[in-house]
């Protein structure tokens, strides 16, 4: 009996699985959650912490390509911003990853003209520029900008009003990406 248990343990151990919670995507031993709601950078950071993670780092080309593929499927229309865990709060223009405190230097994807290094844009967001997902420094309190105003039109006997008129161009929605380590689980044997 003990011999059979040892053999099963040897066979199962190499096939241990790395898993992510439901609603998270797995990539290279890490789990990623793309939010379904908008938030400011600070609220996004708090939401990721509540889920046991942190705002994602975009620290190498392979991970960036993975994030781009998922982001393009999930938010394929309109201008969308994805918050990442980078900021320059401590020293203006010195970007660091929030989770590790390490500098943002080995891999960057800044959009042309960014970072602006303005004192009011201290948080890192990603936005599609054409088909490429690029970084921009942004105001941390942003979650949705812009104003929409309804036109004052009264329905008549022949015309029905069914929509509002947008007086300003559409503004980006600020979603966020959380990251955490995948956990090990044993496959079910049966």
From TrEMBL:
<feature type="compositionally biased region" description="Basic residues">
    <location>
        <begin position="155"/>
        <end position="167"/>
    </location>
</feature>
<keyword id="KW-0732">Signal</keyword>
<dbReference type="InterPro" id="IPR016187">
    <property type="entry name" value="CTDL_fold"/>
</dbReference>
<feature type="region of interest" description="Disordered">
    <location>
        <begin position="144"/>
        <end position="167"/>
    </location>
</feature>
<dbReference type="Pfam" id="PF00059">
    <property type="entry name" value="Lectin_C"/>
</dbReference>
<protein>
    <recommendedName>
        <fullName>C-type lectin domain-containing protein</fullName>
    </recommendedName>
</protein>
<feature type="domain" description="C-type lectin">
    <location>
        <begin position="27"/>
        <end position="140"/>
    </location>
</feature>
<dbReference type="InterPro" id="IPR050111">
    <property type="entry name" value="C-type_lectin/snaclec_domain"/>
</dbReference>
<feature type="signal peptide">
    <location>
        <begin position="1"/>
        <end position="17"/>
    </location>
</feature>
<dbReference type="InterPro" id="IPR001304">
    <property type="entry name" value="C-type_lectin-like"/>
</dbReference>
<dbReference type="InterPro" id="IPR016186">
    <property type="entry name" value="C-type_lectin-like/link_sf"/>
</dbReference>
């Amino acid at each position: 009996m003990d011999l059979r248990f040892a053999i099963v343990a040897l066979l199962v151990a190499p096939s241990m699985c790395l898993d992510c919670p439901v609603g998270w995507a797995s990539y290279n031993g890490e789990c990623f959650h793309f939010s379904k709601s908008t938030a400011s950078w600070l609220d996004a950071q708090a939401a990721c912490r509540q889920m046991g993670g942190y705002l994602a780092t975009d620290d190498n080309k392979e991970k960036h390509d993975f994030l781009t593929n998922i982001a393009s499927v999930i938010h394929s229309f309109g201008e969308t911003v994805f918050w990442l865990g980078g900021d320059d709060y401590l020293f203006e223009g010195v970007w660091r990853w929030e989770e590790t405190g390490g500098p943002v230097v080995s891999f960057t994807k800044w959009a042309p003209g960014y970072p602006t290094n303005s004192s009011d844009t201290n948080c890192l967001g990603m936005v599609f520029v054409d088909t490429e997902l690029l970084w921009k420094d942004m105001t941390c309190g942003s979650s949705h900008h812009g104003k929409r105003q309804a036109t004052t039109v009264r329905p008549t006997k022949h015309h029905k009003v069914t929509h509002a008129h947008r007086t300003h161009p559409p503004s980006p929605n600020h979603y966020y990406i959380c990251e955490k380590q995948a956990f090990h689980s044993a496959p079910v044997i049966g």
